[in-house]
Amino acid sequence: MDGFTRGGLRFDVRDVGTADGAPVAVLLHGFPQDGSAYDAVVPLLHDAGVRTLVPDQRGYSPGARPRGRRAYVVGELVADVVTLLDAAGVGSAHLVGHDWGGAVAWAVAARRPDRVASLTALGTPHPTALRAGLPRGQLRRSRYVGTFQLPGLPERSLLADDGARLRGALRRTGLEPDLADRYVARMCEPGALTAALAWYRALGVPRARSGDRTVRVPTTYVSARRDPFFAPASVEATARHVDAPFTRVDLDADHWLPEHRPADVAAAVLGQVRA
User: By CB count within 10 A, which of 24, 145, 155, 190 is most buried?
Assistant: First the structure.
């Protein structure tokens, strides 16, 4: 499959490996990436006999950029993943998520455990642990989220001079120039950055939070010691919100785990698949 539809929106999907009965992994990207973030991970999983489904998520697929922040609440993002599984004929999958994709993966695992064989969260702490860490360093690391709430200003700032400020921010966090250029080019598409920022703006929608639900599926949490966005307090508290077999993989790595540590990411996923 190369895509699926939901509610009149069309989502692009990279589907690799279609052997009958093969285990399936769904890989969810973050901001401001797209599914290509997993390009170095997919061959490793495919060679191990795993089928991978890598969607460009809501706001990132050109055919799935609805207007307004309410279209990007976590419930909609969860429903997108479930619809992907239905369209692919998959009952349950090994779910992998990085950055915002990690937040979605935690929510899917909590809300629809019947569709999740295992969870591998890359960098992103459990949402309750993230909030609990706010007074212990997380608030400082998340201050950019408040800036993203402002209407119009972040778009004008980040996309000025062909995205120079966004490109610079990505490079300062360790992303290579070619990858930064690729992601910035995607964000320069009409409506793309506004749609991507709507994920942050949807945090302010009343009664739209993902919920403080305990995850009850086998979970591997891959943390990165040099990730500037997640405080150690949030990272350390994550295990308390999983009531299932839990593995912590702590890497001396930066934020960009799928791009920079594909072998470690694949190993973590395959550990769950083989278990």
Answer: 24
Cα distances (Å, whole numbers) of residue 98 to 37, 86, 133, 155, 206? 9, 22, 19, 23, 25
CA–CA distances in Å: residue 99 to residues 46, 63, 235, 238: 23, 22, 13, 15
Is 208 a residue whose pLDDT tops 90? no
HEC profile of the chain: CCEEEECCEEEEEEEECCCCCCCEEEEECCCCCCHHHHCCCHHHHHHCCCEEEEECCCCCCCCCCCCCHHHHCHHHHHHHHHHHHHHHCCCCEEEEEECHHHHHHHHHHHHCHHHEEEEEEECCCCHHHHHHCHHHCHHHHCHHHHHHCCCCHHHHHHHHHHHHHHHHHHHHCCCCHHHHHHHHHHHCCCCHHHHHHHHHHHHHCCCCCCCCCCECCCEEEEEECCCCCCCHHHHHHHHHHECCCEEEEEECCCCCHHHHCHHHHHHHHHHHHHC
Topology (CATH) of 3-148+198-274: Rossmann fold (3.40.50)
pTM of the entire predicted model: 0.96
